[in-house]
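anyone seen this seq b4? input:
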Amino acid sequence: MRSSLLAIVALTACASGTGKPALDEFPPGITGGAEVTYYDIQGSTAQQLIAEMRRLGPQDGRYFGETQSPLRWSWRSKSNAVNCTLTAVSVRMRSDVTLPRWTPPKDTVPGLVAQWNQFIAGLEAHEVGHKDIAARGAKDILHKLQTLSGPCGSMSDEVKRVTADILGRMRVEQVAYDTDTRHGATQGATFPGRRPNPVATTPSTP
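predicted toks r here
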């Protein structure tokens, strides 16, 4: 499981509708959307399912799941003859989640379905937590840019400084979240025989 954040200055259309309400929740003022992509695995034992996730999971099987949460922002500047302020500030976010999907065969080991369902529920809850951290960062960026003013010639540099600072704090918060939850283990993201690979959110700037 892995989650990453990419921040770029651009605008894109955002889609929503994962069928998972918690993934589709975003703060007021933030245009957001989420989409889940599944990779299908096969097997009738825990060992077979783990082997399948190692083979087919994101990052060449290094992770069982992955979340990418791009943040995109844009603005216009308005001069008052002394300084510039930002107007028409827009912050958009999209969370793309990759998860395993399993259809139990008839010869599935007794009890494995219940264990799998618990694992998936925990994994999804953990991914939602990472999404929520990014969403709070998006709201923070929106607020900071809406209140930003200064010399017109330095506004672009100031936007870069402000957003970089927020992304840095988000990076720290994501790492702390993984530490506090033991990469989702405390949320039920465990599977028979081993703890799932960790979700590690690593924000980056363009």
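The two ends are 23 Å apart (CA to CA). The longest strand covers residues 84-102. kinda curious what u guys think
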